[in-house]
Amino acid sequence: MWRGIFILLLFVVAAAVEARPRQINPIPFAHEPCSVLDGRPCTPSYCSPLEPGPCIPEIDYPYGQNLQLTIQSVPSEADRAKYQKPDHDLDTIGDLFAELRSCWSPPSDNMRAGMQMSVRFSFNRAGGLIGPPRLTFATSGVPAETRTTYLNAINASLNACLPLKFTGGLAGALAGRPIAIRYVDNRELVK
After folding, report:
1. How far is 8 from 80, CA to CA, in rounded Å?
2. Number of alpha helices (DSSP H) and beta strands (DSSP E) in the chain
3. The predicted structure's pLDDT at residue 8
4. According to the model, what pLDDT value does residue 163 have?
5. pTM for this prediction
6. How many alpha carbons lie under 13 Å from residue 103 in its C-beta half-sphere?
7. Cα–Cα dist 43/28, whole Å
8. Which of 13, 151, 181, 186 is the most exposed, having the fewest neighbouring CB atoms within 10 Å of its CB?
9. Mean pLDDT of all residues in the chain?
């Protein structure tokens, strides 16, 4: 009889402990996870009926596995600060992007308004290129001579910046990762 009461008491205590709300908020920057019955805005999340506890929200991080950058020949007033060359060793991806933007010098001859060209390449730990940049996109309907002029300008601009001075942490994080840059020539042509 006492054994039955003791087991019943254990079940009651275990149920009381299980019923207490959790103290740790696993989603500190979100409001609440979504529910089918909620009529208010919520944070999208990944859930499973087999996992206990609240769901963890899906977060769109600013940088993916493929680092992408757009460089304009004439930056807007709002973006001018992003085109200033850093005066220190490159420690963040933002520093790297500012350095690459400051290196760009568009061609002065054989230019075309609205020309866009994308290249893809990787850096080694020492701040040099791993192979030449590979052309991945060029504006359609552009003569081969114009494409060659822009590709030569891209290669010359990148080579003028090399080797980049990375900090140890950024060098380890970037080495071998692909970087895709889209160059946009948004200069006005004078006729």
Report:
1. 71
2. 4, 6
3. 81
4. 92
5. 0.64
6. 21
7. 12
8. 13
9. 80
What parts of the chain have a pLDDT lower than 50? 22-31, 61, 63
Residue 9 has a pLDDT of 81
Contacts of 46 (CB under 8 A, 6+ apart): 55, 56, 58
In the numeric block, which tokens belong to residue 121? 């390449």
Spatial contact of 134 and 98, defined as CB atoms under 8 Å apart: no
At 6, which helix (H) or strand (E)?
helix 2-19
Which of 98-124 are b and which e, b meaning 16 or more Cβ less than 10 Å from the residue's Cβ? Answer: bbbbbbbebbeeebbeebbbbbbbbbe
pLDDT in tens, 7-58: 888 777 776 655 555 444 444 444 455 555 655 555 555 556 666 655 555 5
Q: Is the dihedral of CA 99, 100, 103, 108 positive or negative?
A: negative
Q: Of how many residues is the chain composed?
A: 191
Question: What sign does the CA torsion over 140, 143, 148, 154 have?
Answer: negative
- Could you say which DSSP state residue 83 is in? G
Taking the C-alpha atoms of residue 159 and residue 87, their distance in angstroms, rounded to an integer, is 19
